[in-house]
Amino acid sequence: MSHVVLATASPELTATVAAATAGAYVALPQLPATPGEVLAVAGGLPEVVVLDARTAPDQVLDVAAGLTAISPGIGVVLVSDCPAEVGLAAMRAGVRDILTPAADAAEMRDALTRAAQLARPQTPTTGLPLTPDAGPAGKVITVVSPKGGVGKTTVATNLAVGLTRTVPHSTVLVDLDLQFGDVASALNLDPEYSLADAVHNPARRDTMVLKTFLTLHETGLYVLCAPESPAAADGISGDDVGRLLQALASQFQYVVVDTAPGLNEHTLAALDQTTDPVLLTSMDVPGVRGLRKELDTLTDLGMFPEGRFVLLNFEDPAGGLSIADVEATIARDVDLTLPRCPAVPASVNQGIPLLQLGGKKNPMTRQLGRLVERFAGVPTLVARPGRRRGRHRGVKVGA
Ligand SMILES: Nc1ncnc2c1ncn2[C@@H]1O[C@H](COP(=O)(O)OP(=O)(O)OP(=O)(O)O)[C@@H](O)[C@H]1O
Ligand SMILES: [Mg+2]
User: In what residue span(s) does the AAA domain sit (predicted)?
Assistant: First the structure.
């Protein structure tokens, strides 16, 4: 089921709603003649319906009245050139809000939020309360490392893009490196909202509202970026992080979490919600010792589900450490290694993850593809050469 339906033929209004919902809406490109057309496109009871009432206001008001008669919990928002004229009839039809076509994305978002909030008490069964038992939860895959600069963001962004390519619209990436997160830069995003907005919004328990704070990447990946200012991290508690990840896991098949180095309050809260921790380290003695300590600490805290995955980055045969040495030190198997690869810094500087870039496969993209397969369970798709940005076609990598 989709929660916001927009019925309009206007590209401008479509752009406003797309911006207000971060693309999380379904479009009906003409005015519906019956409420049934709206329900059909929504695939069930929508939460909010935006109806463009500029061309045939009477028909639109009939549809609005029909929708609210079917379920008083559907929040109908009208867009009208003359709100004063349609006001009384709209009220009688159960319309929640009327906006003029001049409304910008922020005003539209506020109207959608209000309409959804008003809808909630009347339709507890169509709402999506963010409780721990809401819906079948997706996988929460959290990438952690004891030390900085070992490739967490590289791994998290590529894994998230790879999962999205494999299962479209399945994945949200959360930048939990709240002070110095650089997911936005690694994905070349300029987010309007950050994680701080998402956890502080009064309507944060509403998944529809939460989705409006996500930034849509060109691959179809949803992203919740870190706050702009490092100081904003102070106002975000471990409980906030826990609730946020629960909410996202109720809506997405995969929630990939990038973290700050070490085990701070936010990372521990994320690990509490994590189904699949990915433990990452560089292949050198300090890194491997750090990983051993981290593993021991988490085991002592009882925070280790069976699905843990140990990943070694910067594999270098000339570095004097073998995989066997590493496994002996951490007393666990290594699941996957990533080679040192000059294409990685170049892709980070471009803001295009390797699995989004086309071109020849190299050992790093092959290994990243295997990482994605491990979580998606199917062969990975990466961009077809020459179709780099904004395209969703792909070819199989690895086997
Ligand atoms: N396999 C690799 N080969 C070459 N360079 C790599 C590889 N993995 C990561 N890098 C580079 O190492 C640097 C650190 O990577 P990244 O930012 O992903 O680490 P991080 O663990 O997220 O760091 P921080 O703890 O500071 O957030 C980046 O410049 C990245 O391009
Ligand atoms: Mg990082």
Answer: 139-291
Q: Which of 78, 96, 122 is the last residue of a domain?
A: 122
**139 CA distance to ligand 2 middle (Å):** 21
27 and 155 assigned to the same domain: no
For residue 383, the surrounding DSSP H or E stretch is strand 380-383
In a domain, 134, yes or no: no
Q: Are residues 178 and 242 in the same domain?
A: yes
How many whole angstroms separate alpha carbon 43 and alpha carbon 26? 10
Q: What is the domain count for the chain?
A: 2
Number of the ligand 1 atom closest to the C-alpha atom of 148: 25
Atom of ligand 1 nearest to the CA of 157: 18
Three-class SS of residue 4? Answer: strand
> Distance, CA 181 to ligand 2 centroid (Å)?
6
Is 132 domain-assigned? no
- Ligand 1 atom closest to the Cα of residue 261 is 25
H or E element in which residue 208 lies? helix 207-211
Domain contains 336:
yes
Domain of 192? 139-397
Instruction: State the amino acid at position 361 in one-letter form.
Output: K
Predicted confidence pLDDT, tens digits, the chain (399 residues): 348 999 999 999 999 999 998 888 999 998 898 888 888 887 777 889 999 999 899 999 999 988 887 777 788 999 999 888 888 888 888 888 999 999 999 999 999 988 887 665 443 332 333 333 344 579 999 999 999 999 999 999 999 999 999 888 889 999 999 999 999 999 999 998 899 989 987 656 667 677 778 899 999 999 999 999 899 888 899 999 999 999 999 889 999 999 999 999 999 999 999 999 999 999 999 999 999 999 888 888 887 766 789 999 999 888 888 999 999 999 999 999 999 999 999 999 999 999 998 767 899 999 999 999 999 875 444 443 333 333 222 222 222
CATH code of the domain containing 101: 3.40.50.2300
Q: Using CA atoms, how far apart are residues 319 and 225, in angstroms rounded to an integer?
A: 35
Would 60 be classed as within a structural domain?
yes
Characterize the bridge pairing of strands 171-176 and 139-144.
Answer: unpaired
State which residues have CB under 5 angstroms from ligand 2, the bound ion: 152-153
